Batch of 3 targets.
Target 1
Amino acid sequence: MKYLFILLTCLSLRVSAQTQLNFNKGFIESLDKWVAIKTPVDTIYGYGFIYMDVTAGLDSASGWFV
């Protein structure tokens, strides 16, 4: 049990979050995926899910986060 705890502790030190968002994909490439949307303000981003609507074509359900 002690070795398992040490192993999990060492592995958790290597876990890190994404530090920078890359805005290099188009809407077609993001179909059926969650996306972050760039705004003119650096600290505010939009988010949304890009999907194909039968009547409207490419569409998104979106919101904002800071």
Target 2
Amino acid sequence: MAEGDMYEGDLLANVLRIPSFFWKQHPELWIQVNDLMVNRRYEIEGLKISLEKFEECGN
């Protein structure tokens, strides 16, 4: 891959790394992202992407 190319899951991994204070200030965006992932949790975990910190923001 050339410099700057992305790998499968890179965009999602970066979205999930957004600091918790952002999600707490914008819960409607957290809900939208969570809804997009609801039926794909197993697939995401297969990419070795941690959902733990993101999921904590929804509680």
Target 3
Amino acid sequence: MMYSIKNRWVLWGLALMVVPSVAMMSGYWAELTEVQKCIAEGMGFDYRVGECIEGRTIFVPFSERQPLLVNSGILLSMLGLILCLIGLYKKR
């Protein structure tokens, strides 16, 4: 049996919940890959500049370095949740 979602509110809501999360995770994992390369070479990673350096550095959280990406992603995901709820309660 095949399921399909024909309610546009729910479809847009699901897209807004998934796409920003994938964008944030992509940015985080791309940076984590760079950090692991630096550590494997015996160097440190400067989170503010995004480059390998000699010595140790201070960790700066991803949300502090990319506030626009994180905050807008969370807001869009919340908007998606609201659209899904509207779509689920709306009569066809």
